[in-house]
Every structure is written in structure tokens, then in C-alpha cells.
């Protein structure tokens, strides 16, 4: 099943897409797509809920995101384009949850940002508490999967001192969605194509089979160091084709349009804008 949140920023309502591709409103039964609801997404009968007319704005398809955990250099080709050896263990960092934005919202470049980059990624949404879980049990803790664009300013991330987090966390640098797709509908997380376009030109064309550390390994690994709660998102890394890896390098400018798509999880689209003076 495909779940989403629709409405104005800060006033989104929970919904789902029925078998005919129509949007239905879940808000009479649940407050939002968060917490314990994420552990029982398979119990909803679409026919019970009213249809939503028109094409409302879509927000982040999960609410109450406590942690936005990211994995660096998790594709062999991406490590190669950056001149790095594949890591011995997953590279883990946090992206501020204030970076989260809807799949059609603008990417707003912060002041002084000159090297904003795109990274299409498979996102994993946790559905029930995961703490020290085994790899065999890891996928049973998943509520569903989402398309993520891990927007990154490479100067802030690499050329400035400190951790990667500050290059990843500007407002609007975390578009997620359009849908949260349950595991039965999404399919094998290690058999998904990832693609990203800038101004209609295909920039990334990868596949999750090329992950260095597969999804079940990442969930198990992260859960050794922190509890994963319902609503937490793990962005599992990006394939080659980012702007930093190109020669010459290419970075986002106001007026550009970025699109990202992962398997059957839906395509997102953002216009790039400059911040207000």
C-alpha cells in the first residue's frame, strides 16, 4: 500500500492511495502517520475512507521523525567516483530533521551556498522499535520505504572543518516522498533502480544491488549504537552521478529542477530557489 500526507505545511493530513490510484483521507481514524500507527499499516481498508478531490500538496509521508540517519559511501561506484576505498564498516551520520521537506517543495539554497548537490537514495522508515536487532530480524522492523534526496552542500560538508552534518542539514535539504510504500508493495529493497535528473538530464542511474552494505545490515548495524523508533528514517546511500563526482563538477543553481525516483516508490520533483535576502 502507498501512504502519504497531504495539505499545507504544518497542517498535513494522513492519506493513502487506493487500488485505482485515488487519494483517500485517513484522518477520521488516525491523527497522523506516526508512532504505533506505522506498525499496523497493513490493517487499513481503503474503501472505508473518503476520496480527496483535486491535487493537494504532498508533505513528508511520515510524521514524528525523531532521527534522520544517513549512510555515506554505500555504493561501490560512488566511492570510486570520489576516489575513496569502500569503507570497512558503514559510515553513519545524522541529518537534521529540520531539513525535511515535501516531495514537491522547493530546494532553497542557503546564503553563501555555491556547491549544492543532489543524491537520490532509498529511504527506510522504521515501524517498530529496533534495538540490537539481528540482520535476520531487521526487515521485520520496517514500516515501508521512501524516495529520499540527500541534498548536500559540498563546501559546507567537506571544505569547512568538522562533521558532514552541517553540509546536509539546511532547511529543505531533505525532500522525502511522495509515498511511504509498505514492504509487500515495494518489493525487495536490494532490487530497486535509483535515478535522478537535473533539468531533464539523467545524472544518476544506479541500482540497490550495488550497495556495499545491504538494508538489513544497515538496520542491524545502526541499532547497535542507537535505538531506532517508529518514524525514524535511514537514508541508505547514493550511487554515482552526483555533481561533485563529475568533471567538470556541476552544482545546483536557482531555476534548476531536480527529480529523483527509486523503484516503485514514486518520483519527486523540486525547483531550486535562492533564499530570501
Instruction: Give the overall average pLDDT.
Output: 96
Give the ordered list of helices and strands: EEEEHEEEEEHEEHHEEHEEHEEE
Uncertain parts? none
Content-based structural category = alpha+beta
Q: Identify the CATH homologous superfamily.
A: Fumarylacetoacetase-like, C-terminal domain
CATH architecture: Alpha-Beta Complex
Q: What does it look like?
A:
With 277 residues, the protein is α+β, with helices and mostly antiparallel strands. The protein has a single domain (60-274), classed as Fumarylacetoacetate hydrolase, domain 2 (Alpha-Beta Complex). It has helices at residues 76-81, 135-138, 154-159, 165-168, 183-186, 215-223; strands spanning 2-6, 13-17, 23-25, 68-72, 91-94, 100-101, 107-109, 116-117, 120-126, 142-149, 152-153, 174-175, 180-181, 193-198, 201-207, 233-235, 257-262, 267-274. The strands form five sheets. The chain has a five-stranded mixed β-sheet with strand order 5-4-16-9-10, covered by helices on one side. The chain has a five-stranded mixed β-sheet with strand order 7-18-17-14-15, with no helix packed on it. A four-stranded antiparallel β-sheet has the order 3-2-1-13. A hairpin with a 6-residue loop joins strand 1 and strand 2. 47% of the residues are buried.
Task: Break the fold down into its secondary structure elements and pairings.
Layout: E1 2-6, E2 13-17, E3 23-25, E4 68-72, H1 76-81, E5 91-94, E6 100-101, E7 107-109, E8 116-117, E9 120-126, H2 135-138, E10 142-149, E11 152-153, H3 154-159, H4 165-168, E12 174-175, E13 180-181, H5 183-186, E14 193-198, E15 201-207, H6 215-223, E16 233-235, E17 257-262, E18 267-274
Parallel strand pairs: 4-16, 6-12, 7-18
Antiparallel strand pairs: 1-2, 1-13, 2-3, 4-5, 8-11, 9-10, 9-16, 14-15, 14-17, 17-18
Amino acid at each position: 500500500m502507498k501512504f502519504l500526507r497531504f495539505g499545507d505545511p504544518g497542517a498535513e493530513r494522513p492519506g493513502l492511495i487506493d487500488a485505482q490510484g485515488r487519494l483517500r483521507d485517513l484522518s477520521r481514524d488516525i491523527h497522523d502517520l506516526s508512532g504505533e500507527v506505522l506498525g499496523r499499516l497493513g490493517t487499513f481498508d481503503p474503501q472505508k475512507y473518503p476520496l480527496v478531490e483535486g491535487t493537494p500538496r504532498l508533505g513528508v509521508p511520515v510524521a514524528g521523525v525523531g532521527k534522520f540517519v544517513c549512510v555515506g559511501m554505500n555504493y561501490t561506484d560512488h566511492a570510486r567516483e570520489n576516489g575513496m576505498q569502500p569503507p570497512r564498516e558503514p559510515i553513519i551520520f545524522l541529518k537534521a530533521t529540520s531539513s525535511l521537506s515535501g516531495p514537491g517543495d522547493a530546494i532553497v539554497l542557503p546564503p553563501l551556498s555555491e556547491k549544492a548537490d543532489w543524491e537520490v537514495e532509498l529511504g527506510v522508515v522504521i515501524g517498530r522499535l529496533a534495538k540490537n536487532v539481528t540482520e535476520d530480524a531487521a526487515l521485520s522492523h520496517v514500516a515501508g520505504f521512501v524516495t529520499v534526496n540527500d541534498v548536500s552542500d559540498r563546501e559546507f560538508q567537506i571544505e569547512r572543518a568538522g562533521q558532514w552534518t552541517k553540509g546536509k542539514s539546511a532547511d529543505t535539504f531533505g525532500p522525502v516522498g511522495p509515498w511511504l510504500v509498505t514492504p509487500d508493495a515495494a518489493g525487495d529493497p536490494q532490487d530497486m533502480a535509483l535515478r535522478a535528473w537535473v533539468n531533464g538530464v539523467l545524472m544518476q542511474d544506479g541500482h540497490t544491488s550495488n550497495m556495499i552494505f545491504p538494508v538489513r545490515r544497515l538496520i542491524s548495524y545502526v541499532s547497535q549504537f542507537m535505538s531506532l523508533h517508529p518514524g525514524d528514517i535511514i537514508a541508505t546511500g547514493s550511487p554515482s552521478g552526483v555533481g561533485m563526482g563529475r568533471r567538470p563538477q556541476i552544482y545546483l543553481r536557482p531555476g534548476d529542477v531536480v527529480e529523483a525516483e527509486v523503484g516503485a516508490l514514486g518520483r519527486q520533483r523540486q525547483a531550486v530557489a535562492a533564499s530570501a535576502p
